[in-house]
Amino acid sequence: MASNRRTFLAATAVGTLAAAPPPTAGVPRPRPGPVTARAALDQLLAGNRRFASGRPRHPHESGGVRRTLAAGQRPFAVIVGCVDSRVPPELVFDQGLGDLLCTRTAGEVLDEAVLGSIQYGVEELRIPLVLVLGHERCGAIAATLDHLRSGAPVPGHLELLVAEIAPAAHRTRAVPGDWAEHAMRAHTAWVRDAIRADPAFTSARVDAARFDLDTGLVSLLP
Predict the structure, then answer these.
(1) Of 84, 114, 88, nearest to 100 (Cα)?
(2) Quick one: CA dihedral 167, 144, 80, 137, positive or negative?
(3) Sorting pLDDT into bands at 50, 70 and 90, what band is 19?
(4) CB–CB of 22/71 below 8 Å?
(5) Tens digit of pLDDT for each residue in 23-63?
(6) pTM (predicted TM-score)
(7) Residue 93 reports pLDDT greater than 80
(8) Which of 11, 38, 70, 75 is 20 to 30 A distant from 203 in Cα terms?
(9) What pLDDT, on the 0 to 100 scale, is given for residue 35?
(10) By the 8 A CB rule, do 87 and 81 touch?
(11) Pairing of strands 77-81, 205-211
């Protein structure tokens, strides 16, 4: 991704969104959320434990919450996740309306729209935490490994996904054990590091995590 194009598109997206009119005077403001990145992360992990235990609260889903949020939003975390239907962030972290700003692509692959969306959350909504969420048995990872094994052409738009994930797959090919798991972890960490290195996101804490499909638990990656 060309850095000048990324900067231009991200700035344009944020400028357009920032131009939106403020909420009407007298309309209730959204409820406050965690004010620090640590508090935001703790809330995510606590919600995930409820989800994994089978006792989620399903918070913030009432009509009253919906009407309050119509005046504006104040999410406490940005989740950069995968499109996999088994990993919906609001369920995985047991959060509700207005809690999370989610952007999802296959394999958490970054593009200009994703970066602009993250920047909107960090700069305009003052969200303190960005969490990149990978998961086991990721289809985008599996497709990339299949391509590297066979060398077959990648059809259509899938070429972008494979091109972005392939470096992590190459780096982990000789590591003993589950190649897909190693590649997923390496790619998720790389996405985290790419966001951390971008000056547009220096005001936020950026972490990476792995979702376990079998246990339902989320664990932070080093």
Answers:
(1) 88
(2) negative
(3) very low
(4) no
(5) 333 334 455 567 799 999 999 999 999 999 999 999 999 99
(6) 0.85
(7) yes
(8) 70
(9) 79
(10) yes
(11) unpaired
Retrieve residue 209's tokens: 């995590």
| Residue 80 structure tokens | 């950069």
- Exposure letters 11-29 (e unless 16+ CB within 10 A, then b): eebbeeeeeeeeeeeeeee
Tokens describing residue 143:
């497709």
Say if CB 180 and CB 135 are below 8 A apart.
no
Residue 11 has pLDDT above 60, yes or no: no
Q: Among 83, 120, 121, which residue's Cα sits nearest to residue 100?
A: 121
DSSP H or E stretch at residue 215: none
Helix (H) or strand (E) holding 129: strand 129-135
Residue 111 burial class via C-beta count within 10 angstroms: exposed 0-12, middle 13-18, buried 19 and up: middle
Amino acid at 11: A
What pLDDT score was predicted for residue 12? Answer: 40
Nearest to 78 by CA among 136, 135, 120, 112: 120
C-alpha atoms less than 13 angstroms from C-alpha of 137 in its C-beta half-sphere: 7
Question: Residue 28: how many CA atoms within 13 Å on its side-chain side?
Answer: 10
**Residue appearing with tokens 């339902």:** 216
Return d(Cα 202, Cα 128) in angstroms, integer: 10
Judge whether 50 and 75 are in contact, CB under 8 Å. Answer: no
pLDDT greater than 70 at residue 8: no
Measured CA to CA, the distance from residue 39 to residue 37 in angstroms comes to 5
